[in-house]
Give the backbone structure.
Amino acid sequence: MDGVGVDSLVIVHCCNPREKMWGAVVRLDATGVVLRGLDLESIEDWLRQERAGGEALINPTTFFLPMHRVVRIDLDESTAVLQSYGDRFRAACGRDVREVLTGTDGIEA
């Protein structure tokens, strides 16, 4: 991948309040970033839920983060040491996480 753009899986580091958000970029411009995803603290629970195929208690949402809150945006990429959240989802669930985030896999996201 060449950079951060629409459909990129990213981790957004925010301030005021300090938090990290993960998801697929819906829009990115000078005003801010629109993501379809989750708070980073919810990812593990969501992954377990999706792997088990049970009732959807945790769901991704679409949200706007104004640029004045954005400290940094990292691509969700695997390294030699760590697997990205997107790759972990594919390995655990056998589906592309972007399809689940956008609801295009035939399963309600």
